[in-house]
Design goal:
Structural class: alpha/beta
Order of helices and strands: HEHEHHEHE
InterPro entries: AAA_22, P-loop_NTPase, Sigma_54_int_dom_ATP-bd_1
Number of strands: 4
Helix content: 40-55%
CATH architecture: 3-Layer(aba) Sandwich
Low-confidence stretches: none
Number of helices: 5
Shape: globular
Mean pLDDT: 86
Organism: Bacillus suaedaesalsae
Pfam families: AAA_22
Largest sheet: 4 strands, parallel
Domain ORC1/DEAH AAA+ ATPase: 9-130
Distance between the termini: 19 Å
Strand order of the largest sheet: 1-4-3-2
Protein name: TniB family NTP-binding protein
CATH class: Alpha Beta
Radius of gyration: 14 Å
């Protein structure tokens, strides 16, 4: 995760394992070793595996007071601006398997959104989930 955080390029790291193997504990330990925890955005994937739910959860965790306001495009632009202005160095999405639990169309929309977000924010992402 440290290598991913220190990377100057957007990209992703996928960590998978069965429930109870310590994926979340790994993130907690990693956070404890960081001097600037505020530069790492940690989000639990929402139970509703939709683009809207993920948008809003990311906005909530970054501190937006009214995360439900605006169109998908507005939310995305706001999220990119906030990630950049807050100097976020790494985004961690835990329980990522929830995102894959919806319809095929929802999953594709979420994946396309995440790729776009990684590219536009130029911030690496770490995804944790059960296989």
């Amino acid at each position: 995760m440290r290598n991913c955080q220190n990377s100057k390029n957007a990209g992703g790291l996928l960590i998978t394992g069965e429930t109870g193997t310590g994926k979340t504990l790994l993130v907690k330990h990693f956070l404890e070793t960081q001097e600037s925890k505020e530069k790492i955005l940690v989000v639990n994937a929402p139970f509703g595996p939709t683009l809207r739910a993920l948008h809003e959860e990311l906005l909530v965790q970054i501190g937006v007071p009214f995360p439900t306001k605006g169109t998908a495009g507005t939310k995305l632009r706001r999220l990119i601006e906030l990630i950049k202005s807050a100097n976020i160095e790494l985004v961690v999405i835990d329980d990522f398997q929830r995102v894959c639990g919806g319809s095929r169309q929802n999953t594709i929309e979420v994946f396309e959104f995440l790729v776009h977000l990684m590219e536009k924010s130029n911030v690496p992402f770490v995804f944790l989930g059960s296989s």
